[in-house]
Amino acid sequence: MKHLTEPAYIRWTLIIVALLFLGLFLILPLVAVFTEAFRQGAEVFVASITEEETLSAVKLTLLVAAISVPLNVTFGIAAAWAIAKFSFPGKNVLLTLIDLPFAVSPVIAGLIFVLLFGSQGVAAPLLAEWDFKIIFAVPGIVLATTFVTFPFVARELIPVMEAQGRDEEEAAVSLGASGWKTFLRVTLPNVKWGLLYGVILCNARAMGEFGAVSVVSGHIRGMTNTLPLHVEILYNEYQFAAAFAVATLLAALALVTLILKSLIEWKTERQAKLDEEQHYDVTGERAG
Amino acid sequence: MSIEVVNITKSYKSFTALKNVNLHIPEGELVALLGPSGSGKTTLLRLIAGLEQPQEGSILFNGEDNTNRDVRERQVGFVFQHYALFRHMNIFDNIAFGLSVRSRKTRPSKEEISEKVHSLLKLVQLEGLAHRYPSQLSGGQRQRVALARALAVEPKFLLLDEPFGALDTKVRQELRRWLRHLHGKLGLTILFVTHDQEEAMELADQVVVMNEGRVEQVGSPEEIYHHPANPFVYSFLGRVNLFHGRIQNGKIKLGEAEFETDWKDKAVEAPAVGYMRPHDVEISLRPPEGKSARSVQAEINHISLLGPIVRLDLKRLDTEEVFEAEMSRQRFMELNVEEGSIVYVTLHNVSIYVDSQPVQTHRTALVPLQASV
Amino acid sequence: MRKSLSNRGFLPGFGMTMGYTIIYLSLLVLIPLSVLFLKASTMSWEQFIGTIMDTRVLASIRVSIMTSFFAACLNAVFGVLVAWVLVRYQFAGKRIIDGIVDLPFALPTAVGGIALTSIYAENGWIGQYLAEWGIKVAYTPIGIWVALTFIGLPFVVRTVQPVLQDWDLQMEEAAATLGATRWNTFWRVVLPHLLPAIITGFALAFARALGEYGSVVFISGNMPLKTEIVPLLIMTKLEQFDYAGATAIATVMLVISFVMLLIINYLQWKINKFDAAR
Fold first, then answer.
1. Where are the bilayer-spanning segments (chain A) (predicted)?
2. Which chain A residues in 160-199 lie under 8 Å from chain C, judged by CB atoms?
3. What's this model's pTM, rounded to 2 decimal places?
């Protein structure tokens, strides 16, 4: 309708300005990663990503994600169940506390674990006695990553579960289902896309975290080097092509994340539209 | 200002909302667009406002073609179903909006605007609420703010989309009376959309009954209730009983009941439908004298005591059709019947249609002007 | 116990999930964070103030706040534009553009950092042309601003977009029937409605930018007093084993972040209240 939109020339100007902005800030960096990676040819690219140190960084990155993502998924489900299905005083405070890691700079996230477990840290004597290393070792990286990715799953699940209400669960329980069965058979199918969405975002951040991991890792090549840290080391050693080659792995991860995310959004959107249409049939008044 | 709708057709992708609609709304009248969901009444209202464009036809205000004029220039007052008040503006700013967005040349001064807004607040009886926000008002108050906002720009006429749809019964009653009063005071042409026939009957000078994108009938509430142009209007306005039968030999047979007609072509054989208001159903314990051709036996299935009136659910013994009868409580007491009783029912005031065309029957006024209870 | 349970409904598992939530939250987040404040509290007041009032620290706070602020401003303007274009207009490839807006969330910050640096360095794709005009981006505060704009880009878009999607077009129709032009309608009806969402997005982008490290280190050049941001300074102190200094600066940063978080939550609560009263 004429009165609900702008003349075509304004519309296209706005679209072009928006696309230029996104092109400049998003597309160009992405293209740059791949171009720079192949600047010295495919051989250097292949050599860089099959190098032993790169492979060990890949392994460590996968290991870290494999530990911290499930931890945060478990937490996210428990927190969402408690918060979305029950009412209790202090709920808003709890929600704010869950958000805390979002407000903490990654560097500070690393710092707090150094203060706790570092050589001068609070728990240092204990660790020394047990001969267990956390800082400048894999456990530190896992801890820092888990901290940074802490809210992702909970944050996605809570609103979805809240929107679902608790009628279905109450019906299931009143029909004699156990709590666990109710969760698996009633709640989980309802929130599976929200959960997957949270897992994907959590995983992307876990594999790509740089600041927090940088503080606690100690940058020991082949030992405590994750992929993002490996990129930094190569870059600082002026091995630009190699740095960008490794970066393409992370960029590819980002692209896969975005595609999965879009697919889930598309799916839930379509579901919502279907639900709405059904609703519309019953109460629909105006057509068009 | 009068409104003329000429041959309007409006369709969306796969759906025709209005088919060749013609309508004349005389100056100063309070007119209801009445119809079920999806009948196209809101679309018609939006077309008149200029919020939609028709594929065919034209819209004239006082004889002047407005079809291609932008909504902004039509100067119509439109009140949306859910009011569409600006949530971040207080009541004063909401009402002043139409005046304050005018170009500098035509914009009244701040004082004039303020004066105008306050006089409107007085008109809608919301003085003292100027600085409240829409979220702090009740539904009825919001409705009145929306009206004041529309009136502020001194529109040529007012269009209201389901003005009372979102309100509870009591507030609705009150607002109806108030709108009537306002109409009397302002003398403005008002066109409103409703799906509630009681609302249309109570408020409007003229009722436009719409169905499936067509105008079925236009007339005063009295006319459309007592002289429905077709079965749709008959069944849409108030409760109605349906009897199925045939026309044969120029006679209508609804089960055992027979009606003489002035149908010329005796050879025609077709299904016929009889409509009858529940309050026209006459019940007696003995067969009525003289009119036996139109009386049948029925069994009382259920009795509902609804305060001053009593409603009976009956089943005809000849056709097994179920129908309703309504009577005063006093008459019910006189009859002294109970569920399961067999009674005689005389089919008075049955409107019979063959192929949706009304059929004149003899010796009974098809549609008497006064309802007999 | 029975009574309080029945108040909550009869679904099982509250005690277990709540207990787990609290324990996990405490172990991973609350206790480690409180250690920071504990450590800060072992410093004397003079020591603390002395660390903070150091010129280099103050300069880094200034650089951090200024660049974050301007990045969030740019994102507020373009965020609204992008959200508007994505919701209201139709054009080819819209879905893909919509998906790619989240790239800064998905792309590891270090990758974003080196990519932006290569583009804006003096021999980079854009840097070479800017150099002709005498504009240096990489290794200046402008570079930091570019990186922070990149990482904060999705916030305003993603807070404004849903509000615009749920927006009742009847408001605009109402404005039109009252004679308002499109421009007037946008400024006086649509924009005020979006404002809480824009401010929330702005605050989120600003808070994220303040703490950002990965994308900035590569492009900033890390010159003390000029292009050194707070997280980098904390890093430097740590590398010099100046834990007290790092702690003091981190405490200040954290307090600023918490205040931002409170503001964001307050705004969110306000928006919800606004919507509930509709």
1. 12-34, 60-81, 93-114, 134-154, 240-260
2. 166, 169-170, 173-174, 178-179, 182-183
3. 0.86
Residues in chain A: 288
Residue B205 has pLDDT above 50, yes or no: yes
Half-sphere exposure of A162 (CA within 13 A, CB side): 12
Residue A114 confidence (pLDDT) above 60: yes
Q: Which of C213, B226, B113, C72 is nearest to A228 (CA)?
A: C213
If asked whether residues A173 and A208 sit together in one domain, one would say yes
Q: Do A142 and A114 share a domain, yes or no?
A: yes
Q: Which residues in chain B are closer than 8 Å to A1, comparing Cβ atoms?
A: 51-53
Pick A286's closest partner by Cβ from B42, B50, B70.
B42
Residue B350, token pair as written in the block: 């049955």
Hey, where are the domains in chain C? 1-42, 43-276
Q: Which of residues 20-39 of A touch C (CB under 8 A)?
A: 21-22, 24-30, 32-33, 36
Residue A4: what pLDDT? 79
**Could you tell me the pLDDT band of residue B355, with boundaries at 50, 70 and 90?**
confident
pLDDT at residue C71, as a whole number? 97
Q: Is pLDDT of A282 > 70?
A: no
**Which value does ipTM take for this structure?**
0.90
Helix spans in B261-366 (H): 329-335
Q: How far is B96 from chain A (nearest CA, A)?
A: 21
Cβ of C175 within 8 Å of Cβ of B97? The answer is yes
Instruction: Say how many C-beta atoms besides its own lie within 10 A of residue C221's C-beta.
Output: 17
- A33 and A49 housed in the same domain: no
Architecture in CATH for domain C43-276: Orthogonal Bundle (1.10)
Instruction: Work out the average pLDDT over B123-141.
Output: 92
- Look up the domain containing A5 and give its range: 1-37
In the structure, how many helices (H) and strands (E) does chain C have?
16, 0
Q: Which of A88, A96, A105 sits opposite C211 (nearest CB)?
A: A105
Domain count across chain A: 2
Is A288 part of a structural domain of the chain?
A: no
Whether residue A114 sits in one domain with residue A64 = yes
Taking the Cβ of residue C222 and every Cβ of chain A, the question of whether any pair is shorter than 8 Å is answered with: no
pLDDT in tens, A121-148: 888 888 888 888 888 899 999 999 999 9
Q: Which chains touch B (3 or more CB pairs under 8 A)?
A: A, C
Please state, in angstroms and rounded to a whole number, the distance separating the CA atoms of residues A51 and A55: 6
- Banded model confidence at residue C260, pLDDT cuts 50, 70, 90: confident
Please, which residues 186-225 of chain B have a Cβ atom closer than 8 Å to chain A? 195
| A188 and A212 fall within a common domain | yes
Question: Mean per-residue pLDDT for B342-346?
Answer: 90
Contact B17/A285, CB-based, under 8 Å?
no
Chain A neighbours, 3+ Cβ pairs < 8 A: B, C
Specify whether A125 is located in the same domain as A255: yes
Tally of CB atoms within 10 A around C91: 14
pLDDT of residue A156: 93
Is residue A27 located within the same domain as residue A138?
A: no
Q: How confident is the model at residue B346 (pLDDT cuts 50, 70, 90)?
A: confident
For residue C174, give the nearest of B73, B80, B136 by CB distance.
B80
Domains of chain B: 3-235 (3.40.50.300), 239-359 (2.40.50.100)
Q: Answer yes or no: do A253 and A152 share one domain.
A: yes
CB A178 within 8 Å of CB A48: no
Q: Which two tokens stand for residue A226?
A: 């994750």
